[in-house]
Structures are given as structure tokens and as C-alpha cells.
Amino acid sequence: MAPSSADLLRAASARPRPSLQRPSYFFEGLRAQAFWPRESFPKVVALLEACASELSEEVQSLLEDALSSESGEEPPRTKRRRGIEGAEGRPDDRLERNKNICSRTEVTPRSSPWQPQGEGLHEGVWLKLELWARGGPLASGKAAPKTRAAVAACMSTGEAMAVPPGRAALSYMMCGAHVKPHCGPTNHRLRLHLPLLLPSPQMTGLTVAGEARAWDLHRCLIFDDSFEHEVQLPPLSREDALSDARVVLLLDLWHPDAGFLREQATQAVPEREKCSRKHAYTV
């Protein structure tokens, strides 16, 4: 008789694991490596990178509208080439207003789709717009319909983890943010980052299991977040809510060796939801 998902989770939580890989649930027999090649997930990578520019425009517009609603000004329509390069013709005094707006974004209205990270792991500005969790799309994702649709398409490929603890979100950080070293909840999922807005075409700041990698605009980066990982973004350069923004679309994927768990995906949903709620880190 095959073990149930609940049995698998109980067994996994009791197993030893490598020193830098410390999830709450550790499944043996899964390849352990900090970063994964994009070629391991051809469907999701092709789908997301094909629409990355369009998603960037949507996120940029969403942030501009959020800033304008905070400041009471018309949204600053910016000129973009690669990443965020500043607003054309923006008065210098707007920089200070944007700095003040950013300093308040850790306390966002409940009606805003952008909500603060609440795990106590970080310093600086770090917000999330949740798109998918607990096995389905979330209402907050309606604020970004194109991004929400792209996530839904990924969930139908079989490579993305549509069931808990799988999740998808937009993760917004300002330069200068620091996320303390921590480990995700399980090693049977991997995490994909698609950078949509960066201060420059390439940005450093992510370290996984002691190995640093840069984000490249519109290029997927995949890592195993059950390894200890940390984010340290470069210092603020322009103190501007847009020009110093790092926004990535994050999406959880099935570990390629976790086929036996994928078959159990429709079982033991309460256990998976409990795991998802306890560890909702969205670097």
C-alpha cells in the first residue's frame, strides 16, 4: 500500500539534511543543488520570458498608479529602455516625496494589492502582491491581470506547483533592503524569479548556499530555497520608488525528482496548507 501524503510529510520532517539545507520537510532522494538550469523547466521559462516585457509594463504602471494615489499627483509616466532608468522631465523635488512615500509603504492600506512582508526577516522596504496560493488564484491578483493570466498558464504546464505549498507573487524591494538568511519549508519545490523591474539590466544581491548570483532583466533564475538564502540589495542611488525598485515575479516549481510527490498532490491538502501558511517567505 502506497504511503499517504501525510505519512510522507511526517517522515520527511524527521530526516537529516545537509548543513545549509534546513527545510522543515526534507525528502531524501531529491538532487540537492542551490541553482538549477533554466533548461530543466522549458515550458514555464519559455512562457514567462516570451511575455516578460509586457508584464514589466503592467507592473510599472501598477506601481506608478500606487505612488500617484499616495501622493495625490498624476502618475509619472516614465521612459524605459531596460529596467528602470528614471522619469523623463521629473522635477528634482519629487525625489523627496517619493522617498517619503516609500518610507510609508511598510504600512499599506488593506485595500491595496501590495502588502508588507510580515515574517520579521528583513530591513528596508519589501512588499508583495500575491497572485496564487492555497491551490488557486487570489483576488489580489486582479490588480495585475496579465501577470495573473501568465501565472495561471504556468500552473497548467505541470512544471509549476499549483498545489500548496506552491505559490506565486510579485515581490517588490527597494534598494538597500536586506533579507536575513533563512530556509524555505521543503526541498520538493524550487523557486523561480523572473525580474520585471531592476535599477539596471543586471542586479546583484541574491546569495544561496554561499553562492551569489545576479538577476538579469527578463531572464528566469531558478534556485532551491530550502537552502539557506539571503538578499542584500545595493544601497539606494536615487531614493526613488521606481528607479530603485527590484520587482520579480516569483513562482514555485516542482523539483524534477519529486514525481512521487506530485502524484500525491491531490491528497493531504490540510497538511500542505499548514506548511504554506507557516512559511510564506517570498524573496
From TrEMBL:
* Ranges for region Disordered: 1-21, 62-119
Q: Report domain Aspartyl/asparaginy/proline hydroxylase positions.
A: 122-256
Q: Which InterPro entries match?
A: Asp/Arg/Pro-Hydrxlase (IPR007803), ASPH (IPR039038), IPNS-like_sf (IPR027443)
UniProt lists compositionally biased (Basic and acidic residues) regions at 83-99
Pfam families recorded: Asp_Arg_Hydrox
Q: Which SUPFAM superfamilies match?
A: Clavaminate synthase-like
Residue ranges, compositional bias (Polar residues): 100-115
Family of the protein in this entry: Belongs to the aspartyl/asparaginyl beta-hydroxylase family.
Q: What is this protein called?
A: Aspartyl/asparaginy/proline hydroxylase domain-containing protein
